[in-house]
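Moderator note: this is an archived Q&A kept for reference. The question asked for a predicted structure of one protein chain; the sequence and the answer are reproduced below.
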Amino acid sequence: MRVVVTGGAGFVGSHLCEALVARGDTVVCLDDLSTGRAANVAALTGHRRFQLVEHDVTTPFDVDGRVDAVAHLASPASPVDYHARPLQTLAVGSRGTEHCLELARLKGARFVLASTSEVYGDPLQHPQTEDYWGNVNPVGPRSVYDEAKRFAEALSAAYRRTHGVDVGIIRIFNTYGPRMRPTDGRVVSSFVTQALQGEPMTIHGDGGQTRSFCFVDDLVRGIVAMLDGSEPGPVNLGNPAERTVTELAALVLALTGSTAPVVHLPLPVDDPTRRRPDITAARTRLGWEPMIDIDEGLRRTIAWFRVHDDIRPVVLDAVEPPRVVLDAVSARPAGALGDAGH
């Protein structure tokens, strides 16, 4: 296939690009590099079946030639990023999603939206099934991400009903692994970085809140299965093994051998108390389930952080490789997609 991956230089997107190229697909990677990094796809640079194009999908665009699938992963996804870029987050969930859907419509391509477990908010149902509508604060500080993804789902479903676009929606639960940014505010990257640097490990609240952690390789297998199929979704992709934040901190300390102290900070506004996916749909419809347990996944993640300078952002800035920009994408006039009204 020839696949357009938006957000392809990000944490998850770069792993997806590698998996697709490795199996013989051609990939056009679109990323504005606001939260993604060219370094994440440096191993693919120069490959005949890979192109990195620096572009913001909130601006209309076209891709020359055949497109078989569009994987829309572009969005600030960590708390640090979407709090710092609230309007951009809303724009990429609305205008950006529309532009990607228009590309899929015009090319007759499969469209897969990377949505999120955040659409469930602070869930009153546990574990979360896809037919649960959620408990989301639409005006809270997290709403810029939650509601952007909820709108993206609604828009994708409307394109499926109205234009017959082959849409699939996945809801991604907490994912971790190599290439996470140390300062992205995610709990795994924060704990690993703090443990390796001997800094206090910061637990927000009493640490009793739960999360379900999926290793990135497992997640990518699920995304590829969704790209290859015709399942409309939404489908939860995540590891149903549930851990408290306190248990995660203890595991990171044990695996790193760190003696860093643990400190408690106030709980952020609207922070979910429980999060665990029901993955029955993924098992039955996609033949997918996670295979890597958290001990093994954390070992791989910690090993990656140990040998990369990414845990020292000042050094990282000094060694960031040059951006690779190829001419696979052309901008369209701003009015070419019509008036979206959002």
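Archived answer notes: The radius of gyration is 19 Å.
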